[in-house]
Amino acid sequence: MDHSISTIGPTRIAPVGRDVVIDIVAHHPRIGAALWWSAMQEEAMLRERIVALGRRSARGCVAYPLCELVFRQRAIGVAEDHAIRLRLTQTDLADALGLTSVHTSTGSCSVSDATNCSPWSIDG
After folding, report:
1. Which CATH number does the domain 56-124 belong to among 3.10.180, 1.10.287, 3.40.50, 1.10.10?
2. pLDDT tens for residues 4-40?
3. What is the DSSP string of 44-97?
């Protein structure tokens, strides 16, 4: 592969062979449809990232994935209105977005000002 994956919390990883996936899709069409749908969503997000590469301000670079995460967590019922809980620091987000921590901080403050919220507030 030409990429790597890292996690920010406890994770279990299990390799699933190509033949196993083909067998599951052949015998369970709804799982196949779900996998297809997931792949199409990932491709759409990738296209969005490629098109926007270098064209967004720090604010836009920070806001887009946060909005995406809110949407995903709302879809599975774990978001609280327009708020989500993340195990991300500004440095984690900066690394994921290819920004410096300073740009991520500036972008998140700008998002906070625009939305009257703080992406980095900590609930006690």
Report:
1. 1.10.10
2. 777 877 888 888 999 999 999 999 999 999 999 999 9
3. HHHHHHHHHTTTS-HHHHHHHHHHHHHHHHHHTT-SBTTB------HHHHHHHH
Residue 53: strand pairing partners: none
pTM: 0.58
User: For helices 90-97 and 101-115, what crossing angle results, to 10°?
Assistant: 110
* Residue 101 pLDDT exceeds 50: yes
Residue 18 tokens read as 């190509």
Torsion 48-54-55-56 (CA) sign = positive
Domain locations in the chain as residue ranges: 18-55, 56-124
> How far is residue 76's CA from residue 78's CA, in Å, rounded to a whole number?
6
What number is the average pLDDT over the span 77-99? 79
pLDDT higher than 60, residue 122: no
